[in-house]
């Protein structure tokens, strides 16, 4: 056993660690190229703010179906392996669209072709995020790597570093390089990621068991956020009480699993995969029907849907009216990353023992009053007080990301507490997808609001009204806080 463990540690050592760091750094560094997409839609394609936001909403939809990727990789091994083949497919999907956009000006200048390619790219990125989370879970669970205990902090640090570097270099690249060059430069990271997959060996022995067993063994596929939330999900695990409850039902699950194996022993491989997929989906549906699960998840979904996302409209206003350069907007995103880190620190230090209802209520009140900064900028009141637009944008970016973290951390903690044993990883991915889907719908609502108010490029007369509506909508989720468990706190223990 000792020799077997040493062999696994060697196989999953430096190459595995490098792959993890590379994937999460690339996820964070995506801001480098997505900044260019914003300018491509605005300056080259001449899309309105609502049309641009529609394109972004469709393109990011693959992040809303993350459990599907996890279930597929768990239930349907490719040549006896469940992770590396899917990671290769995901990396190719995230690489090819940027390569095509960098070489073909015709596709780059077509709204529909661009939207399809961006959707395919996000499909690859979301799939890679799910698969690498499952690989980390396996390494931690089976102690295949001596650094398993540090993987969570490594993944978060890599993504944060990638986000900061991508934001800084993205603005600089837009000021000095052609957009096709930016797309091709970004292809370097997925290429390195694809090459790294060749050096990580996956033990196929774990895939030789019945496919349905893999759902239980490897069901820790935590989701990410757009973006910047994925690494934090590693901090939300089941409580000791829930684990004891899982042990209590372990015998029953083992008996059912044995019966399932006997029943399917003579089945074809395709039929076994079908049964495995069916059971995984059934387990998810059965768990989600419980009021203690669907009620709080409904609140987090409503908290996104009821608040129109006007970020694209604000971007148009900042570039066209305030005349803010791309390099400065990249700097503001770096400040946003720092605000996110500060928000996480404040939450863990001072807020985690408060009830979730109180934390979420304060977060939404804070987000509503934060709109006063945008109202001051749009109405030009800040100039009257001698405060520059850049200071207002930087300060607002840091505060917005910090306060949003007060809202996102309870989601992570509560999700970890609600997941029943046996399918916690897949259900957690479902929770993240619900959160992402809410954000996507909120973007559609924001695009609709901008269209109704006739907010367009060069026409921002009603933007002030739109921001006021956005501020008032922040109070709507407070009315539904009864869906959140009354005694739940922000602590994972």
UniProtKB/TrEMBL annotation:
InterPro entries: BT1 (IPR039309), FBT (IPR004324), MFS_trans_sf (IPR036259)
One Pfam family, short name: BT1
Keyword entries, A-Z: Membrane, Transmembrane, Transmembrane helix, Transport
Chain spans, region Disordered: 209-259
GO CC terms: membrane
The keyword Translocase appears for this protein: no
Basic residues bias spans: 234-251
Biased composition (Basic and acidic residues): 209-220
Domain of life: Eukaryota
Transmembrane segments: 12-34, 54-72, 84-100, 153-175, 299-317, 329-347, 359-379, 426-451, 463-484
Molecular function (Gene Ontology), one example: folic acid transmembrane transporter activity
Gene Ontology BP, a term: folate transmembrane transport
Compartments where located: Membrane
Membrane topology label: Multi-pass membrane protein
Family recorded in the similarity comment: Belongs to the major facilitator superfamily. Folate-biopterin transporter (TC 2.A.71) family.
Protein's name in the database: Major facilitator superfamily (MFS) profile domain-containing protein
Lineage, opening ranks: Eukaryota, Viridiplantae, Streptophyta, Embryophyta, Tracheophyta
């Amino acid at each position: 056993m000792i020799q077997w463990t040493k062999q696994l540690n060697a196989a999953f050592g430096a190459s595995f660690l490098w792959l993890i760091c590379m994937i999460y750094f690339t996820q964070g560094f995506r801001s480098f190229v997505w900044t260019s997409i914003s300018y491509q839609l605005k300056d080259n394609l001449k899309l309105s703010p609502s049309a641009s936001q529609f394109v972004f909403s469709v393109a990011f939809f693959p992040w809303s179906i993350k459990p599907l990727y996890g279930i597929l990789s768990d239930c349907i091994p490719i040549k006896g392996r469940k992770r590396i083949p899917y990671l290769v497919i995901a990396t190719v999907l995230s690489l090819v669209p940027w390569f095509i956009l960098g070489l073909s000006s015709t596709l780059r200048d077509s709204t529909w072709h661009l939207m399809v390619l961006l959707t395919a790219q996000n499909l690859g990125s979301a799939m890679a995020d799910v698969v690498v989370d499952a690989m980390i879970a396996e390494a931690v669970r089976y102690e295949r790597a001596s650094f398993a205990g540090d993987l969570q902090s490594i993944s978060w640090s890599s993504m944060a570093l990638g986000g900061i570097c991508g934001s800084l270099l993205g603005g600089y690249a837009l000021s000095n390089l052609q957009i096709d060059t930016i797309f091709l430069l970004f292809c370097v990271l997925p290429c390195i990621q694809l090459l790294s997959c060749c050096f990580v060996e996956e033990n196929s022995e774990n895939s030789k068991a019945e496919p349905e067993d893999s759902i239980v063994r490897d069901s820790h596929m935590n989701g990410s956020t757009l973006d910047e939330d994925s690494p934090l999900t590693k901090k939300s695990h089941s409580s000791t009480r829930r684990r004891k409850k899982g042990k209590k039902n372990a015998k029953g699950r083992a008996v059912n699993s044995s019966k399932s194996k006997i029943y399917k022993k003579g089945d074809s491989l395709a039929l076994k995969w079908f049964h495995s997929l069916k059971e995984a989906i059934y387990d998810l549906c059965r768990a989600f029907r419980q009021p203690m699960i669907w009620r709080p998840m409904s609140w987090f979904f409503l908290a996104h849907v009821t608040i129109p996302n006007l970020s694209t409209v604000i971007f148009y206003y900042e570039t066209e009216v305030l005349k803010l350069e791309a390099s400065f907007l990249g700097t503001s995103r770096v400040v946003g990353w720092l605000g996110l880190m500060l928000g996480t620190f404040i939450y863990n230090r001072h807020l985690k023992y408060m009830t979730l209802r109180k934390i979420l209520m304060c977060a939404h009140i804070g987000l509503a009053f934060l709109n006063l900064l945008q109202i001051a900028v749009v109405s030009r009141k800040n100039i009257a007080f001698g405060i520059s637009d850049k200071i207002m944008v930087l300060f607002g970016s840091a505060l917005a990301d910090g306060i949003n973290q007060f809202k996102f951390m309870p989601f992570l903690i509560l999700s970890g507490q609600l997941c029943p044993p046996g399918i916690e990883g897949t259900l957690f991915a479902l929770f993240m997808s619900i959160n992402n889907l809410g954000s996507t719908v909120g973007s559609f609502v924001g695009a609709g609001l901008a269209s109704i108010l006739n907010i367009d490029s060069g026409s921002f007369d009603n933007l002030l009204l739109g921001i006021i509506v956005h501020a008032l909508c922040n109070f709507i989720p407070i009315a539904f806080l009864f869906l959140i468990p009354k005694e739940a706190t922000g602590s994972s223990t």
